[in-house]
């Protein structure tokens, strides 16, 4: 038997045995409704039964014993019709023991609940701190009466002090946040497993499972004041209700007429036939939904509803909408979280020092958590969100400052060079330096001369000349007799660096060619053995490679300088491994992704920042044009003309393969068409992320060597391939990419002496006026485009390019410059007074920062 039904029948039998005195459940049978209804929903009890039980027991306390018996008898008959094995109702009121009459013989032991059963059948009416803190004492079975805890009183308004926030919680209170979900009555192992798909494992996870949006039903209206299109709440009485089949009986429609004395509103629910029994004429109801129109009359279709006397979580308020997964309904999760928030939020210790909080004009953390889940008003919701966003940005800034301070306390070997040496290096370069490059060289030279490890981010647009700065660092290390390494994300890029460095070193240093070596996956075992030996005996001064540099057999004699290119492609652990090979070597990380300064100071505050914001003289800008889809054949003709002149071209698609869900061109499908129908006289290659690493390397190598004239690719080509002969970049579905990504694509061409072009084709004609595409036409300045991208799309692309060492930002927006500045000022104030957060008043703050950074604990850079 369904466990929810079984437990219900035990309660009914016990109530009958007691003579219908409404004491089979502590507090009365109506107290079991909320938890039992929620658990019955999850136990797949038919909705008709759930609605019947709710309607019969809602007014149970006000009924006479005879009417109570009739109510329970009606429930039993309905259960018996669904479950014949249940058996008939076991007699009249007199036969089963109505108070004042002779009781019937005791039923069989397996027919009645024991005292323990009766206690278990009572719903949880609260979760005390001790219950929450001790998960081992909780129920862990998926049990119907182990239902959602009784809902807490509504959270206090923002102006009211949150209870228990000014004093420590009870002993054992804090471990409650780490208690498993099964500590909540009504969440057993099966439900807990389902909730894990949402990243929910503990009660604290539930507390921090923030709404993804809100439905505002707080605007109450009398029916005669409703307007078409409004999202409103209406309170009224059911005048009439009926159930009728439509579409040959396949769909059932519940139609109700709701009146509030000022007017009447027709309401319709689709395929919810049980509502015809649940909403009886004369009953009060609260409806929330969108006002629509049919044949000139205002109506509501499928509104949220609740009985008038019930505490309103789903109507008549700003209703939170949470991320869900299969098997978890919004209403059920909302009830669970409401209970958790009511009990745990007031006990959350506020990590912000009192003096800091008092100057911020923000609510306490307890109030913020209550109001972000179940806000009393739009204003209180926004204030709560801002407080939580501030905390995220504040913890981020503090963690960055702590890491920078820790790094600055390390020592390493200084690598000084004289003015004369530096001048000689510059004068022998095969090209003149820009002013920005000269400033950058002086900054890195100054860093390397000290015994504090350099920790610098070199940020420059595509073609701004970052490699020569890296070459200077490597040459300085070699001049001091030290070793250095430069790590790139792909073999192609590593080979490019190796060739460029060989050219620069031949012109500027006396290093023998054997002192510069390349180590990639394709390096033969014999060569790898030579490299390992050369590193150990010190004859190899500079090693260029991929992740192969991290392999255990690779050991250095005296590694003092590390350069990481396209650093966002490497994780924290990979960078840490390379550093450990040299005992705190100097570090230069490089990125060609332009990042707005405000964002760079936030994400990379642990690094000293150097920006190359000037292009070398003679660098040709890439001419960019937005074309309508009907001009595609014209674009193909232009590419053919470039191929005829010996140039090469990229064609980028947003998808690997076509999809029914997304109407966009795909690389795999289009590659064959382009080869067979458009560029028949040329070789067309294919590159995408689903290919194996060696396959991708092979295709890129063919294109690099000129064996392929056209490379059809997805966004995998965004970074890491430098083909000076490539003169055209055609981007299909250009409206699907962000500005930063489009600019990176464009940076793959224009790297040689030939005039180059970027052609953008959106999916529809109307997309040609897309603001991002127009910006691409108007400027080649990557930093300006990055600012626009941040304004238009938020920091998503930038978040995706960093290997985070901390929790994902939930509410903070990296485009909110004011909040960033406020958080930075507060972090600087705290950090300068207590660098390691060791003062007693910062104990909670220390824990909060550690938790924020714990998911991927490690150095940021």
Summarize the structure in words.
- The structure is a single chain.
- By secondary structure, the chain is an alpha/beta fold.
- Among the domains are: 3-123, no CATH class; 124-211 and 328-351, no CATH class; 214-321, Beta Barrel (OB fold (Dihydrolipoamide Acetyltransferase, E2P)), CATH 2.40.50; 623-779, P-loop containing nucleotide triphosphate hydrolases (Rossmann fold), CATH 3.40.50.300.
- 38% of the residues lie in helices and 15% in strands.
- It has 29 helices and 21 strands.
- The strands form four sheets. A seven-stranded parallel beta sheet has the order 11-12-10-13-14-9-15, sandwiched between helices. A six-stranded parallel beta sheet has the order 16-21-20-17-19-18, sandwiched between helices. Strands 2-3-4-6-5 form a five-stranded mixed barrel.
- β5 (284-294) and β6 form a beta hairpin.
- α2 (33-42) runs antiparallel to α3 (47-57) and α3 (47-57) runs antiparallel to α4.
- The longest helix is centred in the middle third of the chain and has 31 residues, at 378-408.
- It is elongated.
- 43% of the residues are buried.
């Amino acid at each position: 038997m369904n466990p929810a039904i079984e437990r219900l029948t035990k309660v009914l039998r016990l109530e009958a045995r007691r003579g219908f005195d409404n004491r089979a459940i502590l507090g009365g049978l109506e107290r079991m409704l909320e938890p039992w209804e929620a658990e019955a929903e999850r136990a797949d009890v038919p909705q008709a039964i759930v609605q019947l039980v709710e309607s019969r027991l809602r007014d149970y306390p006000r009924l006479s014993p005879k009417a109570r018996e009739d109510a329970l008898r009606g429930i039993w008959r309905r259960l018996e019709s669904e479950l014949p094995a249940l058996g008939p109702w076991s007699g009249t009121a007199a036969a089963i023991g109505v108070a004042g009459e002779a009781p019937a013989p005791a039923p069989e032991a397996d027919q009645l609940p024991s005292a323990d059963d009766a206690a278990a059948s009572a719903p949880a009416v609260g979760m005390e701190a001790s219950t929450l803190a001790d998960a081992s004492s909780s129920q862990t079975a998926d049990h119907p009466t182990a239902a959602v805890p009784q809902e807490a009183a509504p959270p206090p308004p923002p102006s009211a002090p949150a209870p228990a926030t000014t004093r420590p919680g009870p002993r054992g209170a804090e471990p409650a946040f780490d208690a498993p979900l099964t500590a909540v009555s009504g969440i057993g192992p099966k439900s807990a497993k389902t909730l894990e798909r949402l990243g929910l494992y503990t009660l604290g996870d539930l507390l921090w499972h923030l709404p993804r949006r809100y439905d505002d039903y707080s605007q109450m209206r009398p029916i005669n004041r409703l307007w078409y299109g409004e999202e409103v709440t209406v309170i009224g009485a059911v005048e009439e209700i009926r159930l009728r089949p439509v579409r040959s009986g396949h769909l059932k429609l519940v139609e109700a007429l709701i009146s509030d004395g000022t007017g009447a509103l027709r309401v319709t629910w689709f395929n919810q036939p049980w509502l015809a029994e649940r909403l009886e004429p004369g009953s009060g109801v609260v409806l929330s939904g969108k006002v629509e129109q049919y044949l000139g009359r205002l109506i509501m279709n499928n509104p949220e509803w609740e009985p008038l006397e019930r505490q309103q979580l789903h109507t008549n308020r700003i209703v939170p909408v949470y991320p869900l997964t299969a098997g978890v309904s919004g209403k059920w999760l909302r009830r669970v979280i409401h209970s958790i928030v009511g009990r745990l939020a007031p006990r959350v210790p506020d990590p912000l020092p009192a003096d800091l909080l008092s100057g911020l004009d923000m609510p306490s953390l307890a109030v913020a958590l209550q109001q972000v889940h179940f806000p009393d008003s739009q204003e209180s919701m926004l204030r709560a969100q801002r407080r939580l966003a501030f905390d995220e940005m504040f913890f981020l800034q503090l963690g960055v400052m702590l890491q920078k301070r820790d790094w600055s306390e390390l020592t390493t070997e200084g690598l000084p060079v004289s003015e004369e040496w530096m001048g000689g290096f510059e004068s022998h370069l095969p090209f003149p330096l820009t002013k920005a490059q000269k400033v950058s060289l002086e900054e890195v030279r100054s860093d390397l001369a000290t015994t504090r490890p350099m920790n610098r981010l070199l940020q420059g647009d595509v073609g701004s000349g970052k490699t020569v700065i890296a070459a200077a660092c490597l040459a300085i290390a070699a001049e001091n007799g030290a070793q250095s390494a430069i790590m790139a994300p792909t073999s192609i890029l590593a080979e490019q660096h190796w060739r460029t460095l060989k050219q620069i070193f031949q012109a500027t240093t006396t290093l023998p060619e054997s002192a510069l070596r390349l180590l990639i996956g394709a390096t033969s075992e014999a060569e790898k053995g030579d490299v390992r030996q050369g590193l150990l005996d010190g004859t190899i001064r500079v090693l260029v490679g991929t992740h192969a540099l991290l392999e255990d057999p690779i050991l250095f004699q005296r590694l003092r300088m590390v350069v990481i290119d396209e650093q966002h492609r490497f994780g924290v652990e990979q960078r840490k491994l390379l550093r450990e090979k040299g005992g705190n070597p100097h570090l230069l990380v490089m990125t060609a992704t332009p990042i707005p300064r405000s964002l760079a100071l936030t994400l990379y505050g642990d690094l000293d920042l150097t920006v190359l914001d000037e292009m070398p003289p003679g660098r040709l800008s890439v001419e960019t044009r937005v074309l309508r889809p009907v001009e595609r054949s014209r674009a193909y003709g232009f590419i053919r003309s470039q191929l005829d002149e010996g140039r090469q071209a990229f064609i980028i698609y947003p998808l690997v393969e076509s999809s029914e869900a997304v109407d966009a061109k795909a690389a795999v499908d289009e590659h064959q068409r382009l080869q067979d129908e458009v560029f028949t006289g040329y070789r067309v290659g294919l590159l995408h992320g689903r290919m194996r690493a060696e396959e991708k390397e092979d295709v890129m190598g063919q294109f690099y060597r000129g064996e392929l004239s056209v490379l059809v690719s997805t966004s995998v080509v965004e970074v890491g391939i430098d083909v000076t002969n490539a003169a055209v970049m055609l981007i299909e579905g250009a409206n699907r990419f962000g500005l930063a990504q489009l600019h990176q694509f464009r940076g793959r061409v224009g790297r040689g002496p030939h005039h180059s072009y970027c052609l953008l084709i959106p999916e529809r004609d109307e997309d040609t006026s897309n603001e991002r595409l127009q910006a691409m036409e108007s400027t080649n300045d990557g930093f300006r485009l990055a600012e626009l991208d941040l304004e238009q799309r938020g920091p998503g692309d930038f978040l995706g390019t960093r290997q985070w060492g901390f929790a994902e930002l939930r509410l903070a927006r990296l485009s909110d410059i004011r909040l960033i500045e406020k958080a930075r000022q507060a972090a600087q104030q705290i950090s300068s007074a207590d660098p390691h957060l060791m003062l007693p008043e910062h104990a909670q703050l220390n824990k909060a920062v550690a938790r924020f950074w714990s998911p991927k604990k490690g150095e940021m850079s």
